[in-house]
Specification:
- By secondary structure, the chain is mainly α.
- It has a single domain, classed as Ferritin (Up-down Bundle).
- It contains 5 helices and no strands.
- The chain is elongated.
- It starts with a helix and ends in a 6-residue tail after the last helix.
- The structure holds fe (iii) ion and calcium ion.
């Protein structure tokens, strides 16, 4: 079934937003590098790649169903954060926005009874649980860590172990 124009546009906007997410995480990676938090920078670089993969899932869906994926301008992300906690809080808040946006697209797909888009979006529902959980967890740990440099470097080392699959 060919995708509706309205749904294709909503998915296209989300494609753009996923690329924007990748931009945010790459920007955070640069900032973490500057702070000598190599592990967090590493984690964010991998996350940025994942965001590109998310964008491509949307791109494929539009194109495979006779739509045209339009590459629009990507908003510039923030470049500075007050602290690692501030950055991870931003990442968590951003993922909550992503979840809300995908739920909205899901509602549109359901209102159109688009049975091809629904399972594609279901994958994202699960993915967003993971995205929120990961960023929330680090945010919570950083709150506990407070001013302890030792604990911060231990957490940084752990995040540096994220596998690039
Ligand atoms: Fe994403
Ligand atoms: Ca993920």
């Amino acid at each position: 079934m060919e995708i509706s124009k309205e749904l294709a546009e909503a998915i296209n906007d989300q494609l753009n937003f996923e690329l924007y997410s990748g931009y945010i995480y790459l920007s955070m990676a640069s900032w973490f590098e500057e702070q000598n938090l190599d592990g967090m920078a590493h984690w964010m670089k991998i996350q940025a790649k994942e965001e590109y993969e998310h964008a491509m899932r949307f791109w494929d869906h539009i194109v495979d169903r006779g739509g045209r994926a339009e590459m629009k301008a990507i908003k510039a992300p923030a470049t500075n954060w007050e602290s690692p906690l501030d950055a991870w809080q931003d990442a968590y808040d951003h993922e909550k926005v992503v979840t809300e946006r995908i739920f909205k697209i899901g509602e549109l797909a359901e209102s159109e009874n688009d049975k091809s888009a629904i399972p594609m979006l279901n994958w994202f529902y699960d993915e967003q649980v993971e995205e929120e959980e990961q960023t929330m967890r680090v945010r919570d740990l950083l709150k506990k860590i407070g001013d302890s440099t030792n604990a911060l470097f231990m957490l940084d080392a752990r995040l540096g172990q994220r596998e690039d699959k």
